[in-house]
Input
Amino acid sequence: MDLRDKLGNKIKGVLKELGLPEEVSVSFSSLPELCDFQTNYALVTAKKVGRSPLALAEEIVRAIGDEAYTAVKPGFINIKVTEKELSEYANEVLYDDRLGVAKVESPRKLLIDYGGANVAKELHVGHLRSPIIGEALKRLHRFLGDTVYADTHLGDWGMQMGLTVLELKEDGYLDEFFRASGDYENIPLKNITLDTLNDEYPKASKRKDVDPNFKKLADDYTLFIQQKREPYYTIYKKIRALSVEEIKRNYSLLNATFDFWFGESDAEDYIEPVVQLFVDKKLARVSDGALVVDIAREGEHIPIPKKSENEEQRYKNPMPPAILKKYNGGYLYISTEIATLAMRNKMDNYDEIIYLTDNRQGKHFEQAFRCAKLAGISPENQKLTHIAFGTMNGKDGKPFKTRSGETIRLKDVVKLLVDKASEKLKANGIENDPELARKIGVGAMKFGDLSNIISKDYIFDIDKFLSFDGKTGPYIQYTIARINSILSKANFLSSKEIIVENGEERDIVLALQKLNSSYKICYDDYSLNLLCSSTFDLAKAFSTYYNNHKILSEKDETKKNSMLSICLLVKKALSKALDVLGIDVVEKM
Output
């Protein structure tokens, strides 16, 4: 159903008759004012067959015998598709359940690890990109035919838990637990709310940096929780339950959903067997009381010549050993990461596991992946992928914070967007519709985020993101709302034949083809920015069409039905693109 495939097949038929290699690809034209598509077949094949590129291109064009195909220097074949071909493509897409987007040839089973919220900590602006990008990638892979599972992978088993419980105990919140001798499950967390946790953890985190005794005790508390010692473990479970409730509410605001709500704690039973596996396979060694695994590859520890005998030896591009177990027997983040991978592979056979975090965790995942492959915890044919994203910054280019320099809570960012969207709607005569404002505000943020290259930092510009004009989420939503109004006024209940007759209609169908092609490119690149730009291009092409043609007042019934069918086709294509991006479609704006 891809126009390029049809054009390519037509060229292949001629190549076979000419006895030429039949591997040919057709791409979108880089000069749309000259042609719609082109192929560089003659440029890459000429030398193999002992011809000049231009002569070969001219021979192929003559054999095709169609004036829509022209040979140009230095050897390109330009193709201008006919209105008939565009009409056929538009009608095929209109009546296709998948809107002309093919599934991948070899569907796979994937797990995407995104979310990454930490228990006992408030979700903040730094937690936005992971669910935004992860949800879109999950939907993209599912749309193209993969079986995909999503796991939020809660941070619920690290030192933040020991720090939080210790601070709560010292501040008197847990006296009843430590006075009791059992039946801890029936003791409530009195006077402990999410706001309490938001105060206690930061306080504890600062204390550990200046008080070695407090840090040592927090290490012990973390170990007690990991050992399921009471009352520490029951206190931990109650704090976890309280936090997860709020985490789910926050993710629901972003339309982010998960198949699994596992945390680091769920892999706890796998940690010791996994660590023992490294010992049994003689892959681990003891260093300063800790258990480590050497994962450096040849060339990664090249010594830098010392300037003096007393200078510490340094290395080029060093990859340090992975620490599986601390001096006191406690486990680290990487231990849990590898154990979680072991748990996942016992649960199911995944062709690929994708991890989505900020780019500061690159070395952590490289270490974890190497360890997992070294010990055979990840099968040889399983792909492990870390997608690292950049930072969302303010207009000053620095990480987005409050005026006082504090990190902004995730729900406050959403509120900021919703309030701004409400102002925009009020100016359009729509008041007191908070759910519509949420859809527009969150959609604006998501589109603004996903329009950027994932690995790069970007500027969070709320006014720009929420503009109803330009390359924004609200512009796409508004285009769909405008089409809804047109179809409603026309009482257009069923689609009719599309007949492409003018330049604006040509532009719409070609933009639709580019949009449909962008899905697979984004799939291969683990990115969504091309899908965003292609969606905008289609909406923009429709806007030009709408401004230049009087659709509702068209007298010719056949032409009017065709125009309304084009409206319906654009609506379907834009709605599907927004759905894949995790953005709500709205009926009015």
The CA atoms of residues 163 and 205 lie 7 Å apart. Residues 263-389 form a domain with the Rossmann fold fold (CATH 3.40.50.620).
